[in-house]
Design brief:
- The chain is mainly alpha-helical and 235 residues long.
- The protein has 2 domains: 115 residues, no CATH class; 90 residues, no CATH class.
- Helices cover 78% and strands 0% of the residues.
- α3 packs antiparallel against α4.
- It starts with a helix and ends with a helix.
- This is DUF3307 domain-containing protein.
Length: 235
Amino acid sequence: MILLTKLILVHLIGDFLLQPKKWVKEKEKRKLKSPKLYIHVGIHTILAFLIVWDITYWKLIVTISILHLIIDGIKLTFQKKNTKRQWFFIDQLLHLTTIFVAFILFTKSSFSLSIFNTNTGLLLLTSLVFLTKPTSIIMQSIFSKWNINKLTKGNESLKHAGSYIGILERILVFIFIITNHWEAVGFLITAKSVFRFGDLQESKQRKLTEYVLIGTLISFGIAILTGLLFNYLIN
């Protein structure tokens, strides 16, 4: 159904695109006393009503919003400095689970991939949104266990360039997959390898080479899986 895709789109926009880093830091510092926590949930609620655009689902939207507040509250209460990465993934898993469960309970649907059946434009938009900032933040959380500043010490680069390159390459890979141009994916990987080879050879750092390789594989892998899932759902 279109409704479930809309609810996931709301989560991606509200949790990633419309939540500045300074809000996150303030919430981590003040926890349940932070006004940004309640503003964040309020934005989610308003956004849900705007995107769903059907007042008959108000109970579903309010329920998801309340559960979102509870989950964020639990995360802020129990999260420690050395467990941020684990709590990020637990938090996102719980949010998506509550969306699925609430959707099934309120719409009395049975779970299957067919519940994602929707118009192509909405699914395309959701996929593209996911491949931008949400995936970048997911990858940052994955790599937070390594200190990239130490690995790249002395190597100057444009501000946020790596993040923008990652977003662009994921969108390109996604487009190539959904248009069935797998050879272009191989070309893109080769092109990136050529550009990166000189930097890595010059740095002579095995750790940096491994970091870049893992990052590239994860980034391309997420884009490919998103493209395959998109093709499966629309067909």
